[in-house]
Automatic annotation (TrEMBL):
<dbReference type="GO" id="GO:0008955">
    <property type="term" value="F:peptidoglycan glycosyltransferase activity"/>
</dbReference>
<feature type="transmembrane region" description="Helical">
    <location>
        <begin position="298"/>
        <end position="319"/>
    </location>
</feature>
<dbReference type="GO" id="GO:0005886">
    <property type="term" value="C:plasma membrane"/>
</dbReference>
<keyword id="KW-1133">Transmembrane helix</keyword>
<feature type="transmembrane region" description="Helical">
    <location>
        <begin position="328"/>
        <end position="352"/>
    </location>
</feature>
<keyword id="KW-0472">Membrane</keyword>
<protein>
    <recommendedName>
        <fullName>Probable peptidoglycan glycosyltransferase FtsW</fullName>
        <ecNumber>2.4.99.28</ecNumber>
    </recommendedName>
</protein>
<keyword id="KW-0573">Peptidoglycan synthesis</keyword>
<dbReference type="GO" id="GO:0032153">
    <property type="term" value="C:cell division site"/>
</dbReference>
<keyword id="KW-0133">Cell shape</keyword>
<feature type="transmembrane region" description="Helical">
    <location>
        <begin position="149"/>
        <end position="166"/>
    </location>
</feature>
<keyword id="KW-0808">Transferase</keyword>
<feature type="transmembrane region" description="Helical">
    <location>
        <begin position="196"/>
        <end position="213"/>
    </location>
</feature>
<dbReference type="Pfam" id="PF01098">
    <property type="entry name" value="FTSW_RODA_SPOVE"/>
</dbReference>
<dbReference type="InterPro" id="IPR001182">
    <property type="entry name" value="FtsW/RodA"/>
</dbReference>
<comment type="similarity">
    <text>Belongs to the SEDS family. FtsW subfamily.</text>
</comment>
<dbReference type="GO" id="GO:0015648">
    <property type="term" value="F:lipid-linked peptidoglycan transporter activity"/>
</dbReference>
């Protein structure tokens, strides 16, 4: 085959991906985003947000009765209306971030990681104390929880750092990532926030495994984690109280016990929207224990469906990454998926009384401004790093089209 014939075949195949043929009359950012985004993943996230609105509406009367004292207009649905406002703010943020090229998303994450790490460092100094913890920074119009925003940015920053050692197994890179994770863990435990500490460390170890760290070292880290929990039990009062309450029933277990009773009160199919009564006895029905409210009003079947939806999101991302060639994208997307799924799993485990209380929200379902905005940033980054042109893997031929590589 001569060069002219080969060139003709390449041009002919390149024509097959003409954007006009697939409804993309221009190469605008919105048009490319629509065709490259994982629309199934986006649909599942939208389903979670819709379920969350229904759940917050169900939990809002109980929360309003406890916290508003009836002094707020439309008090029964006070938190529902506020949640709508947070969603209207957060969803455009998620979409805008998901439209970013990977390189720009990486740079944004590195800046965000540095910023929120700095804020996390000053939380114990300037943060107001709420229920014995300092986790927030007040900014006049509201409060921000730096650890929530640091989670997605930390994952991308670790993905970039660990990618520098992929293939060559550069030990100093792994050690540096461990030092950074350890600093974050110490700052979190000063707040104290033992639950978030577990998430950061677990996600870091999972990313090390994906990056190809030696199994013997991973085994050592697992052993170190067990030793760390034991030491925390003896020398970290917060962990001592939580573990004693979970294992031996000591201390105040009202929250987790009442959550379990509430979750099972509705049976398989629930008591119907607005029919729940036990939710009025929950301390945080719209945030930490919203999963129990769902169980009471919509039944255990609905709870199982929600758990399957979270599992589907994580599985969708991991399967999509099987043929990913970029080490940064692979580590970033996998880390974000693990972090998202782990947070959901911990919240549900607390509600069904198989884990001690952590004070952790259920992603995209629990009420919360900082939580909703931070999760939207994380999901936007996940969508950005899983974007892929669906027509790029159909031929080994590569041509340049508009300054980009195209696989006709």
């Amino acid at each position: 085959m001569n060069a002219a014939t080969l060139t003709g075949k390449i041009k002919a195949k390149a024509a097959l991906v003409d954007p006009n043929r697939y409804g993309r009359s221009d190469r605008s950012a919105i048009g490319r985003w629509f065709w490259e985004i994982d629309r199934v993943l986006l649909l599942m996230v939208a389903m979670l947000i819709g379920i969350g609105l229904i759940a917050v509406a169900a939990a809002s009367p109980a929360a309003a009765q406890r916290y508003s004292g009836g002094s707020v207009r439309f008090a029964e649905l006070h938190y529902f209306y506020r949640q709508i406002g947070w969603i209207m703010l957060s969803m455009p943020v998620m979409i805008l971030i998901s439209m970013m090229p990977r390189e720009r998303a990486r740079r944004l994450s590195l800046i965000g990681a540095a910023l929120f790490f700095g804020l996390l460092a000053i939380v114990p100094i300037v943060g107001p104390e709420v229920n014995g913890a300092r986790r927030w920074i007040a900014f006049g119009v509201g409060q921000v929880q730096p650890s929530e925003f640091l989670k997605p940015f930390f994952v991308i920053a670790m993905a970039w750092l660990l990618s520098l050692g992929v293939g060559e197994r550069k030990v100093p890179i792994f050690i540096l990532s461990g030092v950074i994770t350890g600093m974050v863990a110490v700052l979190l435990m000063l707040q104290p926030d033992f639950g978030s500490t577990i998430i950061f460390v677990t996600v870091w170890v999972a990313m090390l495994a994906i990056a190809g760290l030696d199994l013997r070292i991973l085994g050592g880290l697992a052993l170190a984690g067990i030793v760390g929990v034991i030491l925390a039990y003896f020398f970290y009062p917060v962990a001592t109280v939580r573990i004693d309450g979970f294992l031996f029933g000591e201390g105040d277990n009202f929250q987790v016990e009442n959550a379990m009773r509430t979750l099972t009160a509705g049976g398989l199919f629930g008591m119907g929207p607005g029919g729940g009564t036990r939710k009025f006895g929950l301390p945080e029905p719209h945030t930490d224990y919203i999963f129990s409210v769902i169980g009471e009003e919509f039944g255990l079947i609905a709870c199982i469906a929600i758990a399957c939806l979270y599992l589907g999101i994580v599985a969708r991302v991991l399967v999509k990454l099987l043929d990913e060639e970029s080490s940064v994208a692979l580590l970033a997307a996998a880390g974000l998926a693990v972090e998202f799924g782990l947070q959901a799993m911990i919240n549900m485990a607390v509600n069904v009384q198989i884990a001690p209380s952590k004070g952790m929200t259920l992603p995209f379902i629990s009420y919360g401004g900082s939580s909703m905005l931070a999760l939207s940033i994380g999901m936007g980054l996940l969508l950005a790093f899983t974007r892929r042109n669906p027509y790029l893997t159909r031929s080994p031929y590569v041509v340049k089209w508009g300054g980009e590589s195209v696989y006709p």
